[in-house]
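Colleagues,

For the teaching module next term, I've prepared a clean inverse folding example: a structure given as tokens, and then the sequence designed for it. I'd like students to try predicting residues themselves before seeing the answer, so please don't circulate the second half yet.
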């Protein structure tokens, strides 16, 4: 390398890489870059020192063999690489490229030494990233498919095989098989948009399986480019949304039936009740039947029928609309609900604190109204009702809250009846329609709340509402007192 260039020092000093000349197994020259790469203190620290004491390759024999192959002419250039930990504690990766040269008139070995730590670290990071991506592709529940610029499949993960039926061996290198004939124009449109730089996300469409069936999917597609920014293909993530679509269709059919049912209840049942009530009032006025036991009993039955119609309509409408939540003052909604049920003067409501809950305000008021009516019906006109937050975690832990409760001082609910009381049509009184707590259950479910029934400290019933994943108190009684 340095033949014909004086003793080569000027060139060696100008090279940014480390340069070392060694003869008879020891260094005879090193430049400053070599001192730095090898972690030495100075040139004097290396010159005269055995090369083998610096080159930390497992098995010293392989180092000497590499040097010998170059000295003998068996190889013109030899390469070795090793890592070491200098005094600063950071592991370095070093590469040596060894050849022969004339140095000061004597045949010697010349090594160009480079710190390749950053390069090896980048390779390691790339390898780890690649392994992570490969694991994600393999484990993804969504189909991940890569198509080259000729429209042939390059990548087909296990989820793609599960959803569409073809194995990777069947489709790799072949045209994309999942596009139905009636969707080819849409497919070409998506390709054109992606090629122009647009990212197609969440497009709901249909794709074909190996068995010939169409499956509802959500499709997201992006371009794949090489290091120079040239388009090399497309990557698509395809989710099977057949079950979700079917649930939507079922919900739509159910809501249509509920709408029809609500219409029947509203018109075909309420009109006769209103007509019968009107005729009863005329009959009382005509024959002066005010206070007659039979007439009052009939009026009570008509009122109960009207209440049942209201409750049935409420249940039907719960299934027709969605819940839109917002931060709501529990105190304000509770007071509005208390006012709506019109309690007697002896009844008392206590709202503990002014907590805020995430809820649909009108639905929450409807829930509280049904519970308050239930308390008045079962505990009497002088009932005391408390509403407040459920503390998080175990009994006595007041750090935060996970829900709210409604408790009264009435007779309570027998443990054996606590599941039954939430069923539609179940009532423990002759006048009860049995839909109030069923409505409460439906509203709670729409919000994602669980409903717990337990004993209040005053001996009455306590209803607790918590997010489905919230921790629970371990007591079977009211933990707030």
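(Answer key — instructors only)
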């Amino acid at each position: 390398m340095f033949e014909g260039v004086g003793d080569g020092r000027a060139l060696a000093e100008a090279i940014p890489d480390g340069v070392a000349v060694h003869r008879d197994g020891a260094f005879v020259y090193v430049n400053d870059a070599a001192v730095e790469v090898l972690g030495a203190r100075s040139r004097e620290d290396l010159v005269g020192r055995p090369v083998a004491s610096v080159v930390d390759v497992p098995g010293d024999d392989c180092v000497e063999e590499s040097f010998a192959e170059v000295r003998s002419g068996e190889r013109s250039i030899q390469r070795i690489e090793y890592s070491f930990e200098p005094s600063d504690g950071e592991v370095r990766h070093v590469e040596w490229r060894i050849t022969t040269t004339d140095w000061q008139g004597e045949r010697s070995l010349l090594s160009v030494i480079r710190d390749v730590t950053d390069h090896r670290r980048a390779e390691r990071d790339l390898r780890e990233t690649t392994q992570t991506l490969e694991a994600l592709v393999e484990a993804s529940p969504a189909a991940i498919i890569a198509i080259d610029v000729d429209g042939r499949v390059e990548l087909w993960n296990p989820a793609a095989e599960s959803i569409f039926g073809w194995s990777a061996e069947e489709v790799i290198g072949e045209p994309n098989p999942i596009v139905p004939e009636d969707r080819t124009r849409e497919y070409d449109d998506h390709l054109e948009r992606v090629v122009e730089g647009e990212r197609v996300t969440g497009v709901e469409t249909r794709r074909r399986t190996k068995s010939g069936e169409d499956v509802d999917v959500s499709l997201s597609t992006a371009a794949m480019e090489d290091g120079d920014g040239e388009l090399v293909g497309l990557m698509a993530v395809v989710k099977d949304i057949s079950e979700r679509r079917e649930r939507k269709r079922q919900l739509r059919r159910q809501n249509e039936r509920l709408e029809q049912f609500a219409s029947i209840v509203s018109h075909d049942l309420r009109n006769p009740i209103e007509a019968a009530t009107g005729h009863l009032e005329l009959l009382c006025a005509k024959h002066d039947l005010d206070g007659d036991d039979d007439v009052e009993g009939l009026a009570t039955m008509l009122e109960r029928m009207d209440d049942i119609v209201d409750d049935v309509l409420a249940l039907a409408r719960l299934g027709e609309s969605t819940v839109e939540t917002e931060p709501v003052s529990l105190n304000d909604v509770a007071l509005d609900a208390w006012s709506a049920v019109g309690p007697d003067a002896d009844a008392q409501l206590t709202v503990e604190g002014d907590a805020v809950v995430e809820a649909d305000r009108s639905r929450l008021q409807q829930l509280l109204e049904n519970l308050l009516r239930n308390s008045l019906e079962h505990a009497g006109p002088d009932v005391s009702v408390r509403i407040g937050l459920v503390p998080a975690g175990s009994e006595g832990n007041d750090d935060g809250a996970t829900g709210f409760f409604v408790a009264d001082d009435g007779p309570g609910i027998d443990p054996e009846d606590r599941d039954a009381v939430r069923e539609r049509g179940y009532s423990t009184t002759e006048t009860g329609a049995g839909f109030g707590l069923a409505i409460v259950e439906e509203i709670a479910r729409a919000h994602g709340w669980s409903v717990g029934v337990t004993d209040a400290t005053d001996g009455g019933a306590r209803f607790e509402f918590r997010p489905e994943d919230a921790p629970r108190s371990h007591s079977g009684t009211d933990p707030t007192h």
